[in-house]
Amino acid sequence: MQSKHVHLIGICGTAMASLAGMLREQGHKVTGSDTAAYPPMSDQLRAMGIPIMEPYAAANLEPRPDLVVVGNAISRGNAELEVVLDQRIPMTSMAQLIHDEFLVNRDRFVVCGTHGKTTTTSMLSWIFEVAARKDANFAPSFLIGGVAENFGTSFRVRQETKPFILEGDEYDTAFFDKGPKFLHYFPDAAILTHVEFDHADIYADLNAVKTAFKRMVNLIPKRGRLIAYDASENVTECAAKAFCKVERYGFAAESKWRLKELRHINGGSEWALHCDGELFANLTLPMAGEHNALNATAAAALAAGQGIAVESIIEALATFKSVKRRLEVRAEIDGITIIDDFAHHPTAIRETLRALRASYAGRRLVAVLEPRSNTLRRNVFEKELIESLAAADEVVVAGVFNIGAIPEHERLEPGHVVEALNKRGTNASLHADADEIVASITPTLRSGDVVAILSNGGFGGIYEKLPAALRARTSAVS
After folding, report:
1. What average pLDDT does the structure give for the chain?
2. From the centroid of its chain, how far is CA 247?
3. In this protein, which residues make up the domain named Mur ligase central (predicted)?
4. Tens digits of per-residue pLDDT, 376-386?
């Protein structure tokens, strides 16, 4: 594509912000707009010198751009989209533009699944990066749904090498393309971590979700590979008709890639990874949680199949630094540790709290939840949400984000969640917003507590407000 002015509507979405940076590096003029921008992507955009126009307005399209990328959260009625349609400004989706401009003549490795995509994509990218120290041909381009701390960014584009590692999102592509984003990427090899019902705003039921993943699997060529989790009947069903080679991973004795002797020590994990019944490597990861060891195993399996040496895999996983907003320590004040985690689904919440139990054994665990994702704002998973949150010692629930956007009969009732938790013996409370939560819990927190803030959004600035309140409490006492 010759140098153009590209405008992105919804630029603060993780993938959209990454695309903005990729286009900027290609020499294009990039502008974008959003509403309620929040870190980490707003920080990444500003660091790249890409301004964020707020709010959406027709004036943001002046001067007229050559091309508009419409984010998948944008729908008819958006002030900018209406101008694009009225004036017939050329438009496309994020996923389509990535395919057309960045994936031609590339080796495409796509990480898909209801959970674990971002972390696994980051791990796989880091393995390739470490391998490139010995063989420059492994140097990866990548697109990750979060800021990978080993790289300090969510994307990288290299012109001279072929590997391109992508997080494959099953969410829809745009208002004019309701298919999943990952159907635009045509993987040479893929990882499938989990398949569960999610995104209740666009999928009618679990069968609809499985259909989407089956379509993704059907795109992998015969010469390709699918690395598939072994303990999910849904994954098994989605992989059943693959034309490519399927390699299962997990704890099952019959799986090609099998974890054995998994231990969590000092906030990290150790395990023996076996391949076809033989020891492949003894692996260490500076992250706790069974789910993280599984993610690392999937990344190791795909990398090994591409010819990356076991020594590079061992080194990369041992030096992996996680992803922002995935079990990220935001502050430690007076012995109180504040964790930020991108919670979007009850299963993800369960695994996050289990990992924190392993990392911070013996410490009181306080879970602070904002029901914000399209799944958590609905009552479809109310029972599962209660089960997941019960792993904490104390639970604080905020009001449902933008509740008016959810049909009344589908809305989560946070009061029901709190009531059920209290009946189970888990101390739980409900508060309207971040300010009320900070005022309520600041006086009760004590040294040794671990506070897990669970939200996939800005949560009213609680990530800054709670540490500030704790520091003020310390200053008042001293």
Report:
1. 93
2. 23
3. 111-303
4. 999 988 999 99
